Amino acid sequence: MIAGLMDYKNSAVKKMMHQDKVDPGTFSFLEPGWWALHATAITTIWIVADRMAKNSSHRNG
């Protein structure tokens, strides 16, 4: 019974301090997976935009 009360107290304190969230792991903010994901996304967007610009200039030129 005392152990259950301590668990309840600890979880209440964690909730008050906003530390009750589960760590998502590899893709946590600023972890290596986060950087890899964002670098890939930025590169992909740049390539797509570059191709769209080239197609647009060929049609208009």
Quick rundown:
The protein is mainly α and 61 residues long. It has helices at 2-16, 32-60.
Notes on the structure:
This protein is mainly α. It is 72% helix and 0% strand. The chain is rod-shaped. The termini are far apart.
Write the layout of secondary structure elements.
Layout lengths: L1 H15 L15 H29 L1
> What is the helix tally?
2
Sheet with the most strands, sense and barrel status: none
**Mean pLDDT level:** 78
Q: Name the overall outline.
A: rod-shaped
Percent strand equals under 5%
Query: What is the H-and-E element order?
Result: HH
Count the strands? Answer: 0
Structural class per helix/strand content? mainly alpha
Q: What is the terminal-to-terminal distance?
A: 80 Å
Unreliable stretches: none
Please estimate the helix content.
over 70%
Rg calculated over all Cα atoms = 24 Å
Question: Which features characterize this protein?
Answer:
single chain; 61 residues; mainly alpha; 72% helix; rod-shaped
